[in-house]
Design goal:
The protein is α+β, with helices and mostly antiparallel strands. It has three domains: 6-95, 2-Layer Sandwich (Double Stranded RNA Binding Domain); 99-178, DNA polymerase, domain 1 (Orthogonal Bundle), CATH 1.10.150; 206-373, Orthogonal Bundle (hpI Integrase, Chain A), CATH 1.10.443. Helix content is 50%, strand content 9%. The chain has helices spanning 6-11, 66-81, 86-95, 99-111, 117-135, 145-154, 159-178, 206-221, 232-244, 248-252, 285-292, 317-326, 335-347, 352-359, 364-368, 375-407, and strands at 19-23, 30-35, 40-47, 53-60, 259-260, 265-268, 279-282. The strands form two sheets. The chain has a four-stranded antiparallel beta sheet. The chain has a three-stranded antiparallel beta sheet with strand order 5-6-7. The longest helix has 33 residues, at 375-407. The radius of gyration is 36 Å and the shape is elongated.
Length: 412
């Protein structure tokens, strides 16, 4: 059995339908397969851990040099020697699902019935916007951490979106492991570190709140043709966000069946933390008056009526942008109204536990983010402590002076 060389390979020319394999004497298991048609292909042959003989093509002579083929043969034979089966892995890769197919199964079999409609919509958006365009065509078994890192780093200008994409990739590929679509412990997204996120905190001052409420009044009073005009229900939704600290989705999907005017409260059965039960929102006087002024419709169960018959208001971002522009508050988001509700509560000295109850927080840590806003009570506390320390210091100084006088010699 000779060693493969360029001259030997050129001399191998079987005729007709004949096929021959010439094995290399220098590397056991490495050879060249030649057909009567003239095609020549480098191959390796080995036994897997079950003792089964396997043959695997490396590549055509027209695409690989002898040295390149020998190097790849060493790699594949090395894998076989460590109980891997390169031929089986290649077969699985060819039939494996793509990332796009995994996304479809993930939404259908994992998310449906577990996730809220808004969460489902967010997942679908991430898939359509970021994941499928970059990785949708890729085979799951062919994905590597470098692929995950590349997609993540391409989104570093928007770290929030980058981390949401990374989180979804991890979740999807964790499911792929459980469903045996990829080997256990092979999730390529698991080793990628998310970007640091700095939570944006924006709170309205008293002057800003007054400017916002004035702008709301003017926008609602203006005629429909006015540039900054907004509708009755749009204005009511924004005011309720201000006076209740609720999330946007909780207000625009609020139904009359959830409102108890006699007890001045709202009971939400579907909300962000509804796995813990209903969320009770007590209504203060201004919030109660806003709801009382809104007309009810037998054909629409929602408090904040939308433009479509029987539907709630879908989007208040456009009217909100008009109002905040008129108020000179273009950096304020709708969700910042919730933060501002909490900040005014903290400033009034209301305990964080009660504020958490008003906001519907289930974790003390979630509400604790507002603790630093309690400037009034903190200033008062530091003055009290300062006064005590001053008193103690004066008492100590007076005591020392008395001791000094008692030890002095009496003048003659």
């Amino acid at each position: 059995m000779p060693k493969l060389s360029k001259s030997l390979i050129a001399a191998i020319n079987p005729k007709g339908q004949e096929e021959v394999v010439v094995w290399d004497s220098g590397l056991a298991g490495f050879g060249l397969r030649a057909k009567g048609s003239g095609s020549k292909t480098f191959v390796v042959q080995y036994r897997n851990r079950s003792g089964r003989s396997r043959r695997l093509s490396i590549g055509a002579l027209s695409k690989l040099t002898l040295d390149e083929a020998r190097k790849e043969a060493k790699r594949l034979l090395g894998q076989a020697a460590t109980n891997h089966d390169p031929a089986e892995e290649r077969r699985l890769l060819r039939k494996s699902e793509t990332m796009k197919q995994l996304g479809e199964v993930y939404l259908k079999d994992h998310c449906a019935g577990r996730c809220k409609p808004t969460t489902m919509a967010a997942h679908e958006w991430l898939l359509k916007k970021y994941i499928n365009p970059k990785l949708g065509h890729r085979k799951l078994l062919d994905l590597r951490p470098a692929d995950m890192a590349k997609l993540h780093s391409d989104l570093q200008a928007t770290p929030y979106n980058a981390n949401r994409v990374l989180g979804m990739l991890r979740a999807m590929l964790n499911c792929a492991e459980r469903w045996e679509m990829i080997p256990r412990g092979s999730n390529p997204a698991a080793v990628i570190k998310p970007y640091s996120e700095r939570k944006r905190e924006r709170y309205l001052s008293e002057d800003e709140l007054k400017a916002l409420l004035d702008a709301l009044d003017m926008a609602e009073a203006d005629g429909a043709e006015a540039e900054n005009a907004i509708g009755r229900y749009e204005a009511a939704a924004i005011r309720l966000l201000i006076f209740t600290g609720c999330r946007v989705s909780e207000i625009i999907t609020l139904k009359w069946a959830d409102v108890d005017l006699a007890k001045a409260r709202i009971t939400l059965k579907q909300h962000k933390t509804d796995q813990y039960g209903d969320k009770i929102i007590p209504l203060n006087k201004p919030a109660l008056e806003i709801i009382k002024t809104l007309p009810r419709s037998d054909a629409n169960p929602y408090v904040i009526v939308g433009r479509m018959e029987g539907e709630h208001l879908i989007n208040i971002q456009k009217p909100w942008r008009r109002v905040r522009k008129a108020a000179g508050l273009e950096d304020v988001r709708l969700h910042d109204l919730r933060h501002s509700f909490a900040s005014f509560a903290v400033g009034a000295g209301i305990p964080l536990a009660l504020i958490g109850g008003l906001l519907g927080h289930r974790s003390v840590q979630t509400t604790a983010r507002y603790a630093h806003l309690a400037n009034g009570p903190l200033k008062q506390a530091t003055h009290v402590v300062g006064g005590l320390l001053t008193t103690k210091s004066s008492e100590a100084e007076s005591s020392e002076n008395k001791e000094d006088r008692s030890e002095r010699p009496i003048a003659a």
